[in-house]
Amino acid sequence: MKSEILVAFLATIVFFSISLPKLYATTTEGKREVTVVNLRGLNRVLAEKPRGPLTCDKYPRICRAKGSSGPYCCYKQCVNLRTDELNCGKCGRKCKYSEICCQGICVNPSVNEKHCGRCNNKCKKGSSCVYGLCSYA
């Protein structure tokens, strides 16, 4: 028990012998000594409050960051309004069950000739889109 206390005491002395010279600097001005306390950075660490998660409603620039799920902020989430089925074209606009979001418009890819089967898959002139396939029958 006494050896543990002695080790803790010695560790404290070593810590202060290393850190105190960084905090205090002694200079001589003429005949008197001046001690300057350097607490640079220490106040900032002590004064910082723990932050919660960064949300785009307060920090909209995070949606434009690399790896973001989209450049727009809807209900504290980054989304792409051109492809997101829960926010198609504007925040909160949901596509129906059979629809997908193509260029910000909800479309049914089973019958839409401009988006047949997937976005931007245009059927040739004269053919129709059935079951998501151009000229099925």
Characteristic key phrases:
137 residues; alpha+beta; two-stranded antiparallel sheet; 20% helix
Would you write up a description of this structure?
With 137 residues, this protein is α+β, with helices and mostly antiparallel strands. It is 20% helix and 20% strand. It is built from two helices and eight strands; from the N terminus they run H-E-E-H-E-E-E-E-E-E. It has helices at residues 2-23, 42-47; strands at 24-29, 32-37, 72-74, 77-79, 100-102, 105-107, 129-130, 133-134. A two-stranded antiparallel sheet has the order 1-2. It has a two-stranded antiparallel ribbon with strand order 3-4. Strand 1 (24-29) and strand 2 (32-37) form a beta hairpin. It is rod-shaped. It starts with a helix and ends with a strand. This is Stigma-specific STIG1-like protein. It comes from Melia azedarach (Chinaberry tree).
Can you describe this structure in just a few lines?
The protein has 137 residues and is of the alpha+beta class. The protein has two helices and eight strands, in the order H-E-E-H-E-E-E-E-E-E.
Furnish the topology, listing elements before pairings.
Elements lengths: L1 H22 E6 L2 E6 L4 H6 L24 E3 L2 E3 L20 E3 L2 E3 L21 E2 L2 E2 L3
Antiparallel strand pairs: 1-2, 3-4, 5-6, 7-8
